[in-house]
């Protein structure tokens, strides 16, 4: 039994992730130290330690779960969690230095987002997607965002679009590093900022969820080149220029092209 557990833990070592922000480097040793205070956390089925205030324990648990969720998302985008592979919550918990419970809860959130699926008595399998599924996501995103951006192009003053240029520049800087996870984060930030000008929080939330789903890698996609990221980032600046000029045909063409080419 102990030998089996040792083999399982050893097999998970290539997938050790840090869990700070989504853009941070993934260093196992730093990850273990970062979560050391969480080793004493209790699960939902366990009573809190005598004398420990319940609200404080709940805040700490939520923080740990949130950090792990961010790191798992980063690992998905970067390809460290591979499509088709099954990952055990206890084994990943050992790599994070926490119990299996917050890892399992983070994985359940990813299951709701369509990134993984539950495999009874084994763990969670990273969903395998095809190009058709990615195209479907692009179509839905276009149906939502194109009309909104065309309306914004007619109503938002140029000065407001200029305020978003630092976000476009941030995507270009992230693309230049070739770090897909960092780029994915900055890309979503730019799109959220643009759509937020519509004043509809539900719209922003739905569009951001679709955007995140579109960023999970395909089953057998080649490694994304830095040049692809750079070209995608350049479309953000071009879009801002078209929005400032209120050039509606260019806005529509750029948004559609961005969706069909960005998440390849």
Describe this structure in words.
With 264 residues, the chain is mostly helical. The protein has 12 helices and 3 strands; from the N terminus they run αααβααββααααααα. The protein has helices at 2-12, 28-34, 54-78, 89-96, 100-112, 131-155, 158-162, 165-177, 180-196, 201-214, 226-244, 248-262, and strands spanning 86-87, 116-119, 123-126. Strands 1-3-2 form a 3-stranded antiparallel beta sheet. A hairpin with a 3-residue loop joins strand 2 and strand 3. Helix 3 crosses helix 9, helix 8 (165-177) runs antiparallel to helix 9 (180-196) and helix 8 (165-177) runs antiparallel to helix 11 (226-244). The longest helix is centred in the first third of the chain and has 25 residues, at 54-78. The chain starts with a helix and ends with a helix. 33% of the residues are buried.
Short structural summary:
This protein is mainly alpha-helical. It has helices at residues 2-12, 28-34, 54-78, 89-96, 100-112, 131-155, 158-162, 165-177, 180-196, 201-214, 226-244, 248-262; strands at residues 86-87, 116-119, 123-126. Helices cover 65% and strands 4% of the residues.
């Amino acid at each position: 039994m102990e030998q089996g557990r040792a083999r399982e833990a050893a097999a998970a070592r290539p997938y050790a992730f840090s869990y700070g922000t989504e853009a941070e480097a993934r260093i196992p040793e730093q990850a273990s130290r970062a979560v050391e205070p969480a080793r004493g956390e209790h699960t939902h089925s366990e009573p809190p330690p005598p004398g420990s205030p319940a609200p404080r324990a709940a805040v700490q648990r939520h923080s740990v779960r949130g950090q792990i969720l961010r790191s798992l998302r980063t690992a998905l985008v970067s390809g460290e969690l591979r499509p088709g592979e099954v990952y055990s919550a206890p084994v990943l918990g050992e790599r994070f230095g926490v119990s299996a419970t917050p890892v399992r809860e983070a994985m359940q959130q990813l299951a709701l987002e369509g990134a993984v699926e539950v495999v009874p008595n084994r763990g969670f399998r990273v969903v395998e997607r095809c190009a058709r599924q990615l195209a479907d996501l692009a179509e839905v995103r276009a149906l939502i965002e194109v009309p909104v951006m065309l309306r914004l192009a007619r109503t938002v003053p140029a000065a407001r679009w200029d305020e978003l240029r630092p976000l476009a520049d941030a995507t270009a800087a992230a693309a230049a590093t070739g770090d897909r996870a960092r780029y994915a984060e900055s890309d979503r930030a730019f799109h959220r900022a643009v759509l937020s000008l519509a004043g509809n929080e539900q719209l922003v939330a739905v569009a951001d969820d679709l955007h995140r789903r579109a960023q999970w890698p395909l089953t057998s996609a080649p490694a994304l080149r830095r040049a692809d990221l750079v070209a995608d980032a350049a479309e953000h600046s071009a879009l801002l220029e078209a929005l400032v000029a209120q050039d509606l045909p260019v806005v529509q063409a750029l948004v559609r092209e961005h969706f069909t080419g960005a998440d390849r």
